[in-house]
């Protein structure tokens, strides 16, 4: 009780110190300025046999060099902190066939009921997911069904559309075997979704190569591809240099592949993704501020969203929320005069007050040129599609130098996109 009182006094002190100033820039930001020519032959259709033998571009203080990824630890400071996204790609695509012979593909995007990923995947009777439907015009109404066999268990899987909004649909999955979980159904009946720009079907080897070696928590429909280069050997090299590692979870949605179709980026609607961060990870971040490095844009998105959660907590006097939400432009509309340290401490204090182990949130944050990074000092990331929000994030970090970086990679045989090579971008 005494500890809680002391924590609350600390929070109230921080709360009264907040000063807010506007930093929202309404001037046009044209997506055409973030375009470049990407020949099809530069897109890696398959990964290298050895993950850590991919090429690594190093950008630091406007200087560019290159190496092999297995030497990645050489370019990070000793005693720094490297943060990974430990999400795991699910078999999100399930095929059904109507009695007419028409093939219907259901692409699971995110759980609706129950809304928690772990709970939804562990259900043993029915669940509702937000989905895309391939060949929707052939499925006008009614239920679809297929008979499945897992081990010695035979059962029927039925799907029905509950509601639709735009091109997404809420679909109820139900099955008549209480000994089978939805996770087992996806593993058995679903297909691992690989990026659409690979223009090929999922192959057996993708089951291994399109997952990071540290993947743990199921929920993504795309891999955090910067992490695909890491191997046990690279992890061991990090330890030898006393580089600490920590993990968080952001489940990547299909929106990560959505190009910006509006002329002005401010008119683009950013996709929303779920993430969770354990209190131990937040404590590690606090201890290593000034030397935090992210593996992948999804990790960057989570860390910078975490800063925004700290601001929300300070504003809302630490009232308990089941799920925080960070809006697309929230980080631009106001700039609280607090440090990353104060924000992260607020999140830790919030968890302590409410006896919670981790923070849960959905983020729609868009990181574009003009964004002020609060947590990271650098990032590993692959080479991204033209006119993409991922390229905008890179540009936000390195400025106009992104053109020099991408020109270097294009002219020196770097492989692009998910199965391609990597870069380490440093301040």
Low-confidence stretches: 1-23
> What spatial form do the alpha-carbon principal axes imply?
globular
Contiguous helical run count: 11
Number of strands: 21
**N/C terminus separation:** 44 Å
Q: Radius of gyration from the CA trace?
A: 22 Å
* Strand order of the biggest β-sheet: 3-2-21-20-16-4-14-15-19-17
- Helix-strand makeup class: alpha/beta
**Which bin fits the share of residues in helices?**
25-40%
Question: What's the story with the biggest beta sheet?
Answer: 10 strands, mixed
Mean pLDDT: 92
Q: Which percent range describes the beta-strand content?
A: 25-35%
Topology:
Elements: H1 2-15, E1 20-21, E2 55-60, E3 63-68, E4 81-85, E5 87-89, E6 93-97, E7 103-113, H2 117-122, E8 126-134, E9 144-150, E10 153-165, E11 168-175, H3 182-189, E12 190-191, H4 206-209, E13 217-220, H5 232-240, E14 244-251, E15 273-278, H6 279-288, E16 292-295, H7 297-315, E17 324-326, H8 330-333, E18 335-336, H9 340-353, E19 358-363, E20 378-382, H10 389-398, H11 402-411, E21 422-426
Parallel strand pairs: 2-21, 4-14, 4-16, 5-13, 16-20, 17-19
Antiparallel strand pairs: 1-18, 2-3, 6-7, 6-12, 7-8, 8-11, 9-10, 10-11, 14-15, 15-19, 20-21
Helix pairs in contact: 1-9, 6-9, 7-9
């Amino acid at each position: 009780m005494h500890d809680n009182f002391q924590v609350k006094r600390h929070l109230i002190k921080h709360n009264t110190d907040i000063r807010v100033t506007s930093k929202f820039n309404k001037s046009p930001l044209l997506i055409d300025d973030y375009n470049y020519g990407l020949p099809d032959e530069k897109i890696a259709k398959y990964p290298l046999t050895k993950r850590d033998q991919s090429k690594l571009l190093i950008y630091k203080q406007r200087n560019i060099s290159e190496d092999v990824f297995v030497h990645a630890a050489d370019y990070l400071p000793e005693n720094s902190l490297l943060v990974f996204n430990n999400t795991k790609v699910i078999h999100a695509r399930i095929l059904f066939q109507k009695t007419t012979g028409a093939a219907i593909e259901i692409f699971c995007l995110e759980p609706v009921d129950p809304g928690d990923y772990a709970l939804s995947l562990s259900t043993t009777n029915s669940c509702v997911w937000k989905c895309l439907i391939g060949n929707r015009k052939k499925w006008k109404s009614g239920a679809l069904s297929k008979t499945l066999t897992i081990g010695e268990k035979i059962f029927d899987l039925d799907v029905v559309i509950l509601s639709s909004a735009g091109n997404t649909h809420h679909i109820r999955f139900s099955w008549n075997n209480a000994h089978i979980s939805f996770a087992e159904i996806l593993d058995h009946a679903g297909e691992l979704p690989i990026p659409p720009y690979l223009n090929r079907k999922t192959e057996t080897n993708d089951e291994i190569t399109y997952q990071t070696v540290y993947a743990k928590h199921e929920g993504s429909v795309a891999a955090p591809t910067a992490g695909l280069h890491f191997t046990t050997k690279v992890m061991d090299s990090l330890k030898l240099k006393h580089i600490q590692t920590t993990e968080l979870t952001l489940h990547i949605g299909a929106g990560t592949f959505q190009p910006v179709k509006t002329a002005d980026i401010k008119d683009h609607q950013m996709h929303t993704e779920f993430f969770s961060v354990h209190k131990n990870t937040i404590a590690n971040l606090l201890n290593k501020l000034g030397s935090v490095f992210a593996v992948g844009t999804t990790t960057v998105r989570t860390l910078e969203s975490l800063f925004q959660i700290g601001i929300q907590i300070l504003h809302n006097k630490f009232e308990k929320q089941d799920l925080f939400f960070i809006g697309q432009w929230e980080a631009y509309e106001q700039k609280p005069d607090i440090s990353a340290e104060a924000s992260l401490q607020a999140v830790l204090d919030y968890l302590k007050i409410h006896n919670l182990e981790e923070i849960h949130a959905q983020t729609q944050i868009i990181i574009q040129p003009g964004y002020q990074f609060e947590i990271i000092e650098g990032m590993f990331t692959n080479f991204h599609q033209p006119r993409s929000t991922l390229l905008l994030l890179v540009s936000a970090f390195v400025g106009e130098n992104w053109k020099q970086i991408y020109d270097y990679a294009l002219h020196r045989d770097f492989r692009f996109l998910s199965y391609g090579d990597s870069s380490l971008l440093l301040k």
